[in-house]
Amino acid sequence: MSLRFASQTLRSNSLLKKNSILLATRSYSSGEKTLKQRFAELIPEKVDQIKQLKKDYGSTVIGELTLDQAYGGMRGIKGLVWEGSVLDPVEGIRFRGRTIPDIQKELPKAEGGSEPLPEALFWLLLTGEVPTESQVKTLSAELAARSQLPKHVEELIDRSPSHLHPMAQFSIAVTALESESQFAKAYASGVSKKDYWNYTYEDSIELLAKLPNIAARIYQNVFKDGKVPSINKDLDYGANLANLLGYGSNQEFVELIRLYLTIHSDHEGGNVSAHTTHLVGSALSSPFLSLAAGLNGLAGPLHGRANQEVLEWLFKLKDDVKGDFSKESIEKYLWDTLNAGRVVPGYGHAVLRKTDPRYTAQREFALKHLPDFDLFKLVSTIYEVAPEVLSKHGKTKNPWPNVDSHSGVLLQYYGLTEESFYTVLFGVSRAFGVLPQLIIDRAVGAPIERPKSFSTEKYIELVKGLSNK
């Protein structure tokens, strides 16, 4: 096939797809700009801002590197650009300058709902602007219209053995969506670098739209009867995901999913899933391959799988204390855990030095909707006792709870008790944070990431040389 014919075919297929999306979203159109149109307007300003910053301050030293950091996982090194969110050790996460309470207040909500819509957060992370309700409805409708999975992806999920971890199935399915990549086809046809972001945007929306169907198909196959409901074109993203999982009739659960997807979405760019997605994307891999790589990182027990481990620990604690949730009983159990050389799951964080605001948001949800749930009461008592115990123990820099110590409790209450699936929900949410940055990277022409590495022998030579000066 000639490059010219391939390019014409690509444009033709893209036009057909855009026409179908326009038909599906027309009922929500109000003459306002779509997300893609608004982002296109913002690109020149952002490119100029970066150029000027590099011109004026390109040689400015913004940090220092110690040998401990090099051997300690590059902890705290300022070396990444991430527009969507910034994590302060004391203040916590801010999404485009807004705290979690801010976004709960400011972002559009579903009719009759109280929690922000994750589609609205996606708009905020990409543009830095709060969308209108009409703009969010249009985006919701577009995501619903693009949600259908290719037949080969459905068959791939259905053929996966039930004992294969849901996160492995999730990553495999997202990788298989590479067949749908407009970016990969455009790159092969020789499209201009200035248009990379355009096809990356299309891939990202396509991918985001399909994640609920992927997640639900895995859930229904592994834990239920294998039957997946259809996407409702009139529902928002969170409501559709809840419905696909079989919990759509419970409006409290729908609200929980909206909150869950929003607060788990982004936590600056240095965490494993975000950094991996960015790193692989910097090689101009498609959003499908980039996110799949990030999901493989998220599956690790030191990252996204931690919420599953927390729940397993809570169940063991509950059995061991035999229903005695008193502070004295919990304190003794925590000391026994620490003295045995084990950690307290769900406490501590690589960056934070206070209670994780995402934990607080989930705690407030629980206080509102499930204050008498026994597992929540247990978590609450641990919250009262653990920080003091960990502080006295002296080996934890941050004795406060993180997001993982609470999320599983909420899902358990509403009946989604299969904890091995929890990281898949985390993965759906994380896509809302990493895909906007991938689009921005392509829009501003971010280069491939390639830091320098040394061997231990070379570091010995380096530090000895520096110490002799």
Explain this structure.
The active site is at residues 303, 349, 404. GO terms for molecular function: acyltransferase activity, acyl groups converted into alkyl on transfer. Keywords: Acyltransferase, Transferase. Pfam families: Citrate_synt (PF00285). InterPro entries: Citrate_synth-like_lrg_a-sub, Citrate_synth-like_sm_a-sub, Citrate_synthase, Citrate_synthase_AS, Citrate_synthase_euk, Citrate_synthase_sf. This protein has 469 residues and is mostly helical. It has two domains: 34-52 and 69-304 and 418-468, Orthogonal Bundle (Citrate Synthase, domain 1), CATH 1.10.580; 305-414, Cytochrome P450-Terp, domain 2 (Cytochrome p450-Terp, domain 2). Helix content is 61%, strand content 2%. Strand 1 (85-88) and strand 2 (92-95) form a beta hairpin. Helix 7 (151-159) packs antiparallel against helix 8. The radius of gyration is 23 Å and the shape is globular. 45% of the residues are buried.
